[in-house]
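Sample pair:
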Amino acid sequence: MPIDDDALFIEDDSNEGSLSGSATQTRSWKIAIVDDDEDVHKTTCFALQYTQILNRPLEFIHTYSKEETRRVFATESDIAVILLDVVMETEQAGLELVSYIRDELQWRDTRIILRTGQPGYAPEEDAIRDFDINDYKTKNELTRKKLLTSLTAAIRSYEQICTINASRRGLHQIILSSASFTFDHGIQAFAAGVITQIAALCGVPPEGLLCAQGELNEGETGQQFNVIASAGHYSRLMNCAIDDIDDTRIRDALKYVLTNRESMFNEQNMTLYFAGRGNRPLAAYIDLPYALSEINHNLLEVFCSNLGVCIDNLSLVNQLKNHAYRDQLLKLPNRLKFIDEINDIIKNKTARQMLALIDIDDFAEINDVLGHHYGDLLLKAVADRLRSDLGDNIFLARISGDVFGLLGHESQLQPELLKALFSPPFVFDDTAHAVSTSIGMVELSGYENDGAEALKDASIALKRCKTYQRGSFTLFTRKMGLEIRERATLMQHLHEAFDAERLFLMYQPQIELSSKRFIGLEALIRWRTDDGQLIPPNEFIPLAEYSGLIVSLGAWVLRTACFLMVRLQKAGIAPDRMAVNVSVVQFRQDDFVDNVRKALKDSGLPPEHLELEITESVTMASASMFEARLHELKNMGINIAIDDFGTGFSSLSYLDKLPVDRLKIDRAFVQQIDTPEGPRIAELITQLGKKLGLIVIAEGIETQTHWDILSAMGCHEGQGFLMGRPMPEDQLLEWIKDFGRPGP
C-alpha cells in the first residue's frame, strides 16, 4: 500500500535519543510489527535501532498478513506492544486482528497502536470507540520522536499493568497458601506466592528466584537448609539442600541471611529474610537487573516483616492441623485422617483394598495392673513394629486407645500375615511381653458407603470378633451389618416407645399345683409398635440392658406392679405375691435397694408380698456384692426367686448360701417332657430344690400332661397357658373373678 515513507521518521531538532539507563541485564521488550509493507518494517527497525526503553532493548517480531500473524501469535507470549496496520490483504484485516488478539488470545495487557496510511478505512473516532486499541496514528504523522514517545508510553503502561496483575496474583496465592492445612504443601505454595509478589514489587519477572527454608530438627544445634520454591533457570534446584547448590554466591547469601536473620542487598541481587517467630525462617534470593534505591530497601523490609506474620499464621494452622489429624503419643495419623484416606480409596475406586482394625486383647487390664506408662510403651512398640514390618505401602493410624487401623492392598493385609506380626514378643524395659490381638476387617472393593461407614463396619466386625472369636479375626459381611443396623434401629424405637409410654405390663397367674390355688402373679413387660407388631421380650430386653434403658424401665415395672398389687389387695382378690424380674444391670446400680424400698413405701405394699426374680448369671457375677445385696433385700422381708434355673452354671455351694426362696424351672425343661428325653432335668431341679429347702415353680405349663407329671414329681407351683396367659389388668380382673380356681 502507498505510504509516505519520507514523513515517517523525519528527524526532529531535539537532541533526545534513547531512554536507556545503566541497565545490567539483557531482557528485552517484545515489539510486534504487523504490516504488509516490507519498507515499513525496515524503517521502523532502522528508526529504533540501539534504542532502549525503561532500561531494556527492543526485540522485534515481524508479520506481513492477518493469517501469518495468527500463526505467529499462537506460539508467542509476553508481547508488550503491537504496531498494527489496518489495511493489509483486506480493508479490515487489522481490525479483525484486534478482535482475535483480545477475544481469542485473551491478551488484555498487550498494548495495540493502530497505524494506518488510509484513515478512511478506519476513522480514528470509530476505531477508538469500537475496538480495544490503545493509540491511533496515521503513518504520515509518525516522526521518529513521536514513534519513540508512543512506544515509551505504551511500554510503561504495559509494565504497570503487568506489575499490578502479578501483584494481584501473588497476593491471591499468599492468601490461599495461608489458609492451607498441610505445612509441607502449604509452605511451598506460600513461598511460590512470595516469589511472584517480590517480582511484582521490584518490577522484575518471576524468574531467577530462589526461596529457601530453614528447619531446626529435634536434638540438633544447627540449622538444616533446603530449597522449597524456585523459578526460572533455578527450577532445577527445587527440593535441593542449600549445601548442594553449586553457585557459592547464592549458597553463601542464603546461609548468611538464614543464620543472621537479616536481609542482604547487593547491586546484582538481594536476599530477603522473612521474620517469623517460629524456628522455620524463610529467605528468598532474587537476581536484580539494577540496584534498588534506599526507599525500595525500606519497603521490602516492611513487606518481609508483614509476610513473617503470615508465616506464623501458617505455622499455627499447621499445628492445629497436626493436632486434628495426628495422634500425639504415637506420631501416627488419627481416626479423622484414617477416614479421609478411606474416602480417597472409595472415591478413586482403588482395586483390592482392605481395611483392618487391630485391637490389643486385655489392654485395659494391662493398664490397670502395670500402669499407663507401661501401656504407652507397649503401644509404641506395637506401632513401631507395624510401621517397620508393613512398610510405606500400608497406611497406619491409631483409631482409639489400643486400636490400630490399617489400609492397603489385600495381599499385604491377610489375617495370617497380621497375626504373624504379633508372634514374637515385644521387648521394652528389658521385659518381653506377649500380645494377643483381635482383628476386624472390611473389603473396600465395590464398597458403596463413605469412609466413616466403612470404619463403623470394621468396628462391628472387630466387636463380633472380640465377643465370639477373641484372638482371631472377623471379616465384615452384609448380613452382619444388617443385623447391627436393625438392632440399632430397634434400640432407637425402644427409647421412643418408653418415652411415649407405649410399653405396658401383662400379668400371668401362678398356681399351687397340689391345691390348684391362685397364689401369685408375674409382671411381664410387653412392647407393641405403632403398626401393631408385638416385639418379643427376648429381643428388646437385651437391647434395654445394653443401652442402660433397663434401669429406668425396670424401676417403672417394679413400681407399676407394686401399685397393681395394692389395688388387688384393697379389692380383696390379691394372691400371696407379685413377682418382678430384675436385670443384672439393675442389680449393679448402687441405689437399687433404695429404689425397691421407695417403690414399696410409695405404693404401700408390704415387702412380704413382693418377689424379685433374678437369673443365675446375676448370682454368679460379682458374687460378694450380690450376696450382700440379696441379704439386705431378704432382711426387708422380700422373697427371692432364681429364674430360668438350670440354663446357667451355678455353683451349688454358693447357691446354698444365698437367701433364696424359690427355684424356677425354665420353660425349655418343661417342654422337654413331651420329648424322648422326658422330664429328667425338671425332676432333677425339683429334687435339688427340696434338698435345699426351696419351693420349686415351673413355667411353661401348657398341657394337662405337664401339670400331672410336674405335680407327681413334687413340683410345688406352676404357671403357663394351661392356667392363664399373660394378660393386661382389665382381663386379669375378669380372670380372677371367673377362673380364680382353675382346675387341671
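The chain has 26 helices and 29 strands.
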